[in-house]
Amino acid sequence: MHHDTHVTDASPEQVHAWLANGEILLVDVREPNEYAFERIHGALLYPLSTFDAGALPMEGRKLVLHCGSGKRSLTAAHKLQAAGHGHLTHLAGGIQAWKAAGLPVIRIDPQTGRVIEDGRR
């Protein structure tokens, strides 16, 4: 059944390739503490708890949403669609799938506050 609440699943590899080519704006809808602990390089933080569909850049690159496991990014996608965004894409499986695919994340070392680049290919 085709209707307007369609959200496309993108694989970690696909999102990684888009990011590398500067084709997308990756939006992380997790909470700030989660983002601080571990994030995908280049992702912008717009937490679902304070999510304002109007605050996201509408122009330019296509939006791809992600969260921890893929649930919150779907919720955020539906909020955006309700606010007039068209077709949306999210990272299926969230940052968990991204890491499972062996793709890099940036982590903060809680002891030193230093950034650790994790998961090099």
Span of the ends, CA to CA: 39 Å
Integer count of domains: 1
**Helicity level, as a percent range?**
25-40%
Q: How big a fraction of the residues is strand?
A: 15-25%
Task: Return the average pLDDT rounded to an integer.
Answer: 90
CATH homologous superfamily annotation: Rhodanese-like domain
Strand count, sense and closure of the main sheet? 5 strands, parallel
The helix-and-strand class reads alpha/beta
| Overall number of strands | 8
What is the H/E string?
EHEHEEEHEHEE
Strand line-up in the sheet with most strands:
1-6-5-2-4
**CATH class categorisation:** Alpha Beta
Low-pLDDT stretches: none
Please give a structural write-up:
With about 120 residues, the protein is an alpha/beta fold. The protein has a single domain (about 5-110), classed as Oxidized Rhodanese, domain 1. Helix content is about 30%, strand content about 25%. The chain has 4 helices and 8 strands. A 5-stranded parallel sheet has the order 1-6-5-2-4. It is globular, with a radius of gyration of 14 Å.
What topology emerges from the helices and strands here?
Elements: E1 7-10, H1 12-20, E2 24-28, H2 32-37, E3 38-39, E4 44-45, E5 62-66, H3 71-82, E6 88-91, H4 94-100, E7 105-108, E8 115-118
Parallel strand pairs: 1-6, 2-4, 2-5, 5-6
Antiparallel strand pairs: 3-7, 7-8
Task: Give keywords.
single chain; 121 residues; alpha/beta; Oxidized Rhodanese, domain 1; 4 helices
In short:
With 121 residues, this protein is an alpha/beta fold. 28% of the residues lie in helices and 25% in strands. It is built from four helices and eight strands.
